[in-house]
TrEMBL record:
Transmembrane residue ranges: 15-36, 67-88, 108-129, 178-201, 213-241, 261-285, 305-329
Compartments, as annotated in UniProt: Membrane
Recorded GO CC terms: membrane
UniProt key word DNA-binding: no
Source species of the chain: Octactis speculum
Entry-linked Gene3D superfamilies: Clc chloride channel
One of the record's GO molecular function terms: chloride transmembrane transporter activity
Lineage: superkingdom: Eukaryota
Membrane topology qualifier: Multi-pass membrane protein
Lineage, uppermost ranks: Eukaryota, Sar, Stramenopiles, Ochrophyta, Dictyochophyceae
Protein name as it appears in the record: Chloride channel protein
Keyword Manganese: no
Length: 370
C-alpha cells in the first residue's frame, strides 16, 4: 500500500464530488437557457386551432418570425460565449484536452489550470451549448475536471485544516495523478459513465499507472457520476421537484425498443457498404478540417473581430438549416389508424408513437413534422 493511502482515497472522493457538483450546475444552467429558448420559440410556433395553412399542411406566417428570433437569440449567446474567452480568459479556449495531455506528459503551460480558467470555461460552455448550436459540455468538462483535480489536491481555496490534510500531495507526481482522477470525474459526470472515465484516462491521458491508482481514479469517477445523477433526479432548471436520489426511468434507460425485427445475415452487406462510404467521407472531412484549421490560424485567429464573428456565422448557417430543412417535409398524422399504409407512418423498432416525442413545427394539432 502506498504511503498516505487513506488520504489519497479521500482526496479522490473529494475531487469526484466537486466534479459532480460542477457538472450538475453546468447541466442545469444549460437546461435553463434551453428552456427559455424553447418557451420563446413555442410561443411563436404554436398553431393549435389555426386554419390558415399552406397546401401541404404548413402554416407560413410564423416561419420568418421564428427564424429572426432564433438568429438573434443564438447569435447573442454565441457572441457572449466567444467574448468571455477572447476578452476574459483566452487560456480557456477549446476543449482543453490537448493542454491536459501535454501537462501530464511533462509540458507545463503556465496559468492553464487555474480557477479563472474554470469560471471562464463554465460560462462560455453554458452559453454556447445553451444557444442550441451543435456543441456539448463533454470536452470542456474534461478540462475543468483536470483543473479541479489540480486545485483540490493542492489545497487551493481550502480552509487551513484541509490544506494541512492535503500538504503531502504538494508535489508534481501527486498533482499529476489527481489531475488524471479529475479527468475521469469530468468524463463520468458528463457522460454518466464511470467506467468510460476510467478507460479514457487509462487509454488517452495517463502517463503513469498502477492498480491502486486505477482504483482510486475509478472511485473518483463513481463519486462524480453518483453525485450528478442524484442531484439531477430532483432538480429541473434549478427548481427542486422532489424525489432526491430517485433516479428516473427516462434517465436510466436511454433506448426503448419494444418491437422485434427479423434479422438476416444479408442485412450486413449494405451495412458494410455504408461503412466504406462513411470511411471515405471521413477521409474527405479530415482533409477539409486540416485545411480549415490552417485557414483559421492564418486569417481568423490573428484578428479578434474575426475570431468573435466566426462562431456567429456558424450559428447562422446552423439556424438556417434547422428552420428551413423541415419545410421540405409534409405534415404527418399522429394517429395512423385510418391510413396505416402511409409511408410516413412506419415505426421501425417501435409498435407505437410517443405523442410527447413528436414536434408539431407548424403543423395542426393532430399532425407532426417527421
Amino acid at each position: 500500500t502506498r504511503p498516505g493511502s487513506a488520504q489519497r482515497w479521500t482526496t479522490s472522493g473529494m475531487i469526484g464530488f466537486m466534479c459532480g457538483i460542477l457538472a450538475f450546475c453546468l447541466k442545469q444552467t444549460i437546461a435553463s437557457i434551453l428552456y427559455l429558448r424553447e418557451t420563446m420559440l413555442n410561443a411563436i410556433m404554436d398553431t393549435d386551432g389555426d386554419t390558415s395553412l399552406m397546401e401541404n399542411g404548413w402554416r407560413s406566417d410564423w416561419l420568418w418570425q421564428t427564424y429572426v428570433v432564433l438568429i438573434i437569440f443564438t447569435s447573442s449567446l454565441v457572441v457572449l460565449s466567444s467574448a468571455v474567452i477572447l476578452y476574459g480568459e483566452p487560456r480557456a479556449a477549446g476543449s482543453g484536452i490537448p493542454e491536459t495531455s501535454a501537462f501530464l506528459n511533462g509540458v507545463i503551460i503556465p496559468k492553464t489550470f487555474t480557477i479563472s480558467v474554470v469560471i471562464a470555461k463554465f460560462a462560455s460552455c453554458a452559453l454556447a451549448v445553451g444557444s442550441g448550436i451543435p456543441a456539448g459540455p463533454e470536452g470542456p468538462m474534461i478540462h475543468m475536471g483536470s483543473v479541479l483535480g489540480s486545485l483540490v489536491s493542492q489545497g487551493v481555496f481550502m480552509p487551513k485544516f484541509m490544506k494541512d490534510f492535503l500538504k503531502p500531495f504538494h508535489n508534481v507526481c501527486d498533482r499529476r495523478d489527481f489531475m488524471g482522477a479529475g479527468v475521469a470525474g469530468g468524463v463520468a459526470a458528463a457522460f454518466s459513465a464511470p467506467i468510460g472515465g476510467l478507460l479514457f484516462v487509462a487509454e488517452e491521458i495517463a502517463t503513469h499507472w498502477d492498480v491502486e491508482l486505477g482504483m482510486q481514479i475509478f472511485f473518483c469517477a463513481i463519486v462524480a457520476c453518483s453525485t450528478v445523477e442524484v442531484l439531477m433526479s430532483s432538480f429541473t432548471t434549478f427548481i427542486y421537484i422532489g424525489g432526491l436520489g430517485a433516479i428516473k426511468e427516462k434517465s436510466a434507460i436511454l433506448f426503448a425498443v419494444n418491437k422485434e425485427i427479423s434479422v438476416n445475415v444479408i442485412m450486413f452487406i449494405p451495412t458494410i457498404i455504408l461503412g466504406i462510404i462513411g470511411g471515405l467521407f471521413g477521409v474527405v472531412f479530415n482533409k477539409i478540417s486540416v485545411g480549415a484549421s490552417a485557414f483559421r490560424a492564418k486569417h481568423i485567429k490573428p484578428h479578434k473581430i474575426m475570431f468573435l464573428l466566426e462562431p456567429v456565422l456558424v450559428a447562422i448557417v446552423y439556424c438556417s438549416a434547422i428552420i428551413f430543412i423541415p419545410t421540405f417535409f409534409d405534415c404527418v398524422p399522429i394517429d395512423c389508424s385510418e391510413d396505416p399504409e402511409l409511408a410516413a407512418c412506419a415505426r421501425v423498432g417501435l409498435s407505437g408513437l410517443d405523442d410527447e416525442s413528436v414536434i408539431g413545427y407548424g403543423c395542426p394539432a393532430d399532425k407532426y413534422n417527421p
